[in-house]
Write a structure and sequence with these properties.
Layout: E1 13-14, E2 19-20, E3 25-26, E4 32-34, E5 39-40, E6 45-46, E7 49-52, E8 57-58, E9 63-65, E10 70-73, E11 78-79, E12 84-86, E13 88-89, E14 111-112, E15 115-117, E16 122-123, E17 128-129, E18 134-135, E19 140-141, E20 146-147, E21 156-159, E22 164-168, H1 172-180
Parallel strand pairs: 1-4, 2-5, 3-6, 4-7, 5-8, 6-9, 7-10, 8-11, 9-12, 10-15, 11-16, 12-17, 15-18, 17-20, 19-21
Antiparallel strand pairs: 13-14, 21-22
Amino acid sequence: MENIFFDLKQLKYLGVGAIIGRTVRIRQPEKVIIGDYSIIDDFTYISCELEVGRHCHIAPNVTMSGGAGKVRLGDLAGIAAGSSLHAGSSDYVRASLDLPSVPAEMRFGGVIGDIMLGDHVLLGAHTCVLPGVTLPVGVATAAFTLLKKQLYEEWTLYGGEDGHKLCARRHAALDQQLMKYPELLGTQTSQI
């Protein structure tokens, strides 16, 4: 299936069996790696460097911004509809001149921080992730969660506008299922 905004051949890497919706908008496809069997649904907008692991799903209407920053997803990660991940942002406390509409030689300030989502991370609908957030394996969020740069615990559910801990996530059944399918275990593809 052809994309209406860019040629899929422009992507740095497009994995085996990966699906990119026709209306996904990627501003710099040459900086984007999509792992094997991952899916990005229509109406998603990406304006930063991106690495997506294997068997990931990015639902519709997701925004990933921050031209100078990078977003990385581990394997088997999911981002629900309406979520936004911001690897770069203006600084709202200290005035800056960092908008993409300003010539590069005039820009200063702003906040840049790569976002890293580990394996099995699930972001609930309308989750907002700010620059510099790292989520370890198994983290999940409730709908409308705001995540700021802080320490997060593996296999934990977070929620709310302060991204507070809600409960531990049970994962024994997942671990058993994954043992049946060793091809889903391990590190990401060599391209990522």
